[in-house]
Amino acid sequence: MEHRKLVCICCPMGCTLDIALNGIEILGITGHNCSKGKIYGEKECTAPVRTLTTTIETVNGCSKRIPVKTELDIPKEKLFDCVKELKNIQVTAPIHIGDVILKNIADTGVNIVATAECESANE
Amino acid sequence: MQEIDLLIIGGGPAGLAAAVAAKEQGINNILILERESRLGGILNQCIHNGFGLHIFKEELTGPEYAHRFVQRIESLNIAYKTSTMVIDMNKDRQVTAVNKRDGVFTIKAKAIVLAMGCRERPRGALNIPGARCAGILTAGTAQRFVNMEGMLPGKNIVILGSGDIGLIMARRMTLEGARVLAVVELLPYSAGLTRNLVQCLDDFNIPLLLSHTVTKIIGKDRVEGVYIAPVDNNRKPLQDHEIYIACDTLLLSVGLLPENELSKRAGIKLSPLTGGAEVNQDRETNIEGIFSCGNVLHVHDLVDHVTEEGYIAGEAAAKFLRNPVRSAAQVPVKASKSVRYVVPQFINTQDMNRSLDLSFRVTDMYIDQYVSVYFDTIRVFHQKRKILTPGEMQKVKIPMDTLQNCSKYNEASILVEEE
Question: Do A54 and B47 touch (CB under 8 A)?
């Protein structure tokens, strides 16, 4: 059995959670002051997820780069794989908010979408 | 000289919210002046998510949050000029601005909303000894380089200050391939939000050194390293415990300052506590018809709160335009025990037509204590808060019926008490 310490992010209280683990099986959580903390601790220990945001180079856009995000949360350990895959991608303007820039990034089943508008430079 | 009803200086979240609110109140002759090439303000470079949880009940990135308001501006046909810099303003509400198309021009406005935002404290405000070489920049400048220009300003980074922008940039630069060696914070607690500490530092095993500071910067043309040392209770560095960290870049995330140069030119009275204007509950300054909202009034943690304040200022400006008469009757609001500052600083006791929104920050961390508001010695508001921290702005809302008799009191005060 091992113990993992996490700081809960559900509210500014920032409770320090102590999670007793056997592999990925949770044996017990202490230190939380509300039920949100328990759920957060369980999720963080079994399947932590994050939203990735970054920017991508544009071609013929009125701005040099376009901000993008993963449409849904992705497994935390895939963050760097996703950034790598986006590294040398270019996208041609015009680009609209919500446009899919790349499908199924790093085999996560999640799409990369634009989070801003980018008009063509010559308009 | 062009004459307009409402001029809004700054097209970031505060200015856009003020414009939307005023327009919805029936004010048609509105103009927004923005110095960047597009509306949205600093949100355009804040590509991370976490915006809008209060206003939209969902998590948006900065550009997405801005876009929602830009769409409102477009659909409401509110006029704006981008790439336009305001260079002067006086108490008669004459504003001089400059841009490429119009040259230098002056506008006379019946009302003005100030929404110029804030800027970062630079190295010069800290007096860090050592070399004046390349590689020392504020976290926001780095954010602009990485997110908008596509350039990584360094490879081995030390960050001084644990403000949210610094934490966000620790993650951002790590994802882009830089190594963040440490985040160094003078205070014994972080200035940033807990979620940023966890998701930006803990996720990437970036050490946070509390009660530490940078004592010297080494480098000739470019930063080669920094000395850091722990500090004692008086925040004085303990030189004997100094250690050297080799790095090529020092980012500063050491606080934000409201940008009030224009306000000063118009003779607007500023608060030494907030760096912003002193205002009444309408967010009106000491100069009649000039309102202030967002980070130029006081530095916020959440854009949602900036938007809410923009709405208040915009609605109040519309009310002023309909009936530009103001009574002098004001009750001061004082930040009392354990409260560092409170906004607004005055209550205008005539024409109380909405509840009173007070924003404040506490001086220390308090757990399970009460926030109270007194009119002289009478307690009119009392609410338990699970946790109060200096890093998170607090708000209280005092209902309108409580305020009806407040003109007979000398002052209001807000404080933290145990029961």
Answer: yes
**How many angstroms separate the CA atoms of B53 and B377, rounded?**
37
Return d(Cα B34, Cα B73) in angstroms, integer: 13
We report the CATH number of the domain holding residue B145 as: 3.50.50.60
Tell me whether residues A50 and B193 touch, CB distance under 8 A.
no
Domain residues for the domain of B169 are 122-254
- In chain A, ranges of CATH 3.10.530.10 domains: 53-114
Q: Where are the alpha helices (DSSP H) in B152-302?
A: 164-175, 194-196, 261-265
Q: Do B391 and B351 sit in the same domain of this protein? A: yes
Residue A7: which of B44, B150, B197 has the nearest Cβ?
B197
Binary contact (A12, B387; C-beta < 8 A): yes
Residues B312 and B211 in one domain: no
Q: What is the pLDDT of residues A19-71, one digit of tens each?
A: 998 877 888 899 888 888 898 888 888 888 999 999 999 999 999 999 999 99
What is the number of CB-based contacts under 8 A between chain A and chain B?
Answer: 74
Residues B232 and B311 in one domain: no
Q: What is the pLDDT of residues B406-416, one digit of tens each?
A: 778 899 999 99
pLDDT band of A2, cuts 50, 70, 90: confident
Task: Note whether B89 and B181 are same-domain residues.
Answer: no
Measured in whole angstroms, the distance separating CA B246 from the mean position of its chain's CA atoms is 33
A46 three-state secondary structure? helix
Mean pLDDT by 10 residues, chain B (419 residues): 96 98 97 96 95 90 98 98 97 97 97 97 88 94 96 97 94 96 93 86 95 96 97 94 97 95 97 96 95 97 95 96 80 94 91 84 92 93 89 88 82 93
> Which helix or strand (DSSP H or E) is residue B180 part of?
strand B179-184
* ipTM > 0.90 (yes/no): no
**Domain end: B300, B326, B352, which one?**
B326
| pLDDT for position A111 | 97
B49/A57 touch (CB, cutoff 8 Å), yes or no: no
Q: Looking up tokens 């109270």, which residue turns up?
A: B372
Nearest chain A alpha carbon to B193: A12
Instruction: Name the residue in chain A with its Cα closest to that of B66.
Output: A116
Q: Which of B326, B341, B371 finishes a domain? A: B326
Whether B193 and B244 map to the same domain: the answer is yes
Instruction: Fold for A53-114, please state it.
Output: CPE0013-like fold (3.10.530)
Given phi > 0 = left and psi -120 to 50 = alpha, else beta, which region is B141? alpha
CA atoms within 13 A on the CB side of B89: 26
Name the pTM for this structure.
0.93
Number of domains in chain B: 3
